[in-house]
Amino acid sequence: VMTSPPTFTLNITTATPVRTTYILGTLTGNTETNISNFNAVLKSSDGLNNPDILCFIFQLSTSTFTCAIPGGYAGVYKFTLTHTSLGKSSTSPTVELNIFVNAIDKTQGSNFGGTTLTISGSNFSPVPNENQVYIGPDHCNSPCLIIAASPTQLTCTVQASQSCHKLNTPYSVRVFGRLQQIAKNTANFTFTFVDPGVSIAYVSSSIVLAGDAFIINGNGFLCPDWDDPRVWFGSYEGVVTDFNNYAVFVKVPELDAATYQLSVFIPCKGFINSAGYVVTSPLQITTQSVNATSVGNRITIKGNGFTFPNVYVKDANYPCLMVSVNKSTIVCDLATTFYFSAQYSLAVDFVGMDSIIIPLYVNTTITPNITTVTATTSGTKTTVTVVGSGFTMYTAKNRVFVTYNGKQVEGKVGTVTNTSLTATFTNIGTGTHTFMFYADGVGFATVAALAQAQ
Questions:
Q1: Cβ distance 284 to 267 under 8 Å?
Q2: Distance of alpha carbon 292 from alpha carbon 377, whole angstroms
Q3: In what order do the strands lie in the sheet with 132-135?
Q4: How far apart are CA 427 and CA 5, in angstroms?
Q5: Strand 329-334 to 297-304 pairing
Q6: β-bridge mates for residue 302, sequence order
Q7: Please, is 268 exposed, middle or buried when counting C-beta atoms within 10 Å of its C-beta (0-12, 13-18, 19+)?
């Protein structure tokens, strides 16, 4: 007895050109879950005679499947699913590979760009760069850069108008999907470039440093809802600290040493005409300080425009190891073994520029101070304990001397804090000795001290 092979019917639940253009479907009468036994294809059915499109199945169960379209042309297709032994699906549902625009929230904006459009519709790709939006026809258009995307909504920022555009003239908004198809219904939507009605009269300075209070003076900066303006120095955004209709107050961000074009954005109007307004961020060093109480001899250099610095002691060719760097502060450490026995200079190198040489200041006007000295002798070894202040604040090598048999003998300095140190001597004998404390590059302590070596 011959029996008919089992059959299955196909029902497409959704067909949206998302990312790789997924097609989701449901199956009945299917007992097969081996993907390799299935073949899915879309055949043009709208008279355009577009080439067939293969749909690659990557998820399959007895009741559902998902396949992906790698490319093709927009249009209307019949979807067919074929199994090696079960044959073709009993139905070939219609699948329309098109995107649709239902609404665009704004119809005009600044001819300098910056207007944000929200485009509502269907079948958009959730991958931003798989959608494109243009204002105007092919020969004269400005892009609207996609900043967010979902299957039902695109958000984009209109760029400045082209020289071929005219103010106060509506231009078509053209929305393209992943398959480069233009969305249906876009003919119903236009965008008009207008003068934003904001002007810059002058700025407070053409030279800016990180943290400066920078003022932009003009007219029309205020929005009805008091939305904050935004200001960029090139690609670096400053912090708007205050504003009114006639001025915007900005804290300058950290900048590389360079010249920057100023850009001003008013939320309710878009970008404004800032052509010709440029500022310069110079490379300069304002201060440096040495802190010997931290790990190593820490050097902090303040200034502006720092990029990839290299710092070293020029006279000794001794490196200063980087701790942290930003565009206004360099922090580096000289090893604790580096002693300031002379006045040195710091060399600060920047890529592609000559070294900047700055003095390395060490305070030599205040000498260490001794309050007490005690000495104990055990066998041939005499240990001296010195108590006072300022033993480490000068980043200097500490030394202790004693006069013995008419000669000056140096002890071996051990543990040192800012208020105490120890030193050991060999074969100086018992009795009363005069001990002297000395810091290289700083000088002798304020007092020499007598101590009885017991």
A1: no
A2: 32
A3: 100-104, 116-122, 153-158, 142-150, 132-135, 170-176, 190-194, 108-110
A4: 112
A5: antiparallel
A6: 287, 329
A7: middle
State how far the Cα of 370 lies from the Cα of 437, in Å rounded to an integer.
8
Contact 383, 453 (CB under 8 A): no
DSSP string, 124-184: --SSGGG-EEEES-TTS-EEEEEEEEETTEEEEEEPPPPTT--TT-EEEEEEE-TTSPBPB
Work out the average pLDDT over 57-62: 90
**pLDDT digit string, tens, across residues 89-120:** 877 888 888 888 999 999 999 999 999 999 99
Q: Distance of CA 96 to CAs 15, 56, 181, 392, Å?
A: 7, 17, 12, 80
User: CA-to-CA distance for 372 and 452, rounded, in angstroms?
Assistant: 12
Sign, CA dihedral 15-21-25-30, equals positive
How many other C-beta atoms can be found within 10 angstroms of the C-beta atom of residue 364? 14
**Which among 268, 269, 329 is positioned nearest to 298, based on CA atoms?**
329
Contact 446, 370 (CB under 8 A): yes
- Tell me how many degrees the CA angle 431-388-418 measures, rounded to the nearest 5: 125
At 62, list the tokens. Answer: 């007895």
Q: Give pLDDT tens digits for 400-454.
A: 878 777 777 888 888 888 888 888 988 887 777 777 776 654 555 544 555 555 5
At residue 186, what are phi and psi to the nearest 5 degrees? -65, -20
- Distance separating alpha carbons of residues 135 and 143, to the nearest angstrom: 6
Q: How many residues does the chain have?
A: 454
Sign of CA dihedral 113, 115, 120, 126: positive
Cα–Cα dist 434/450, whole Å: 4
What is the number of other CB atoms lying within 10 angstroms of the CB of residue 90? Answer: 12
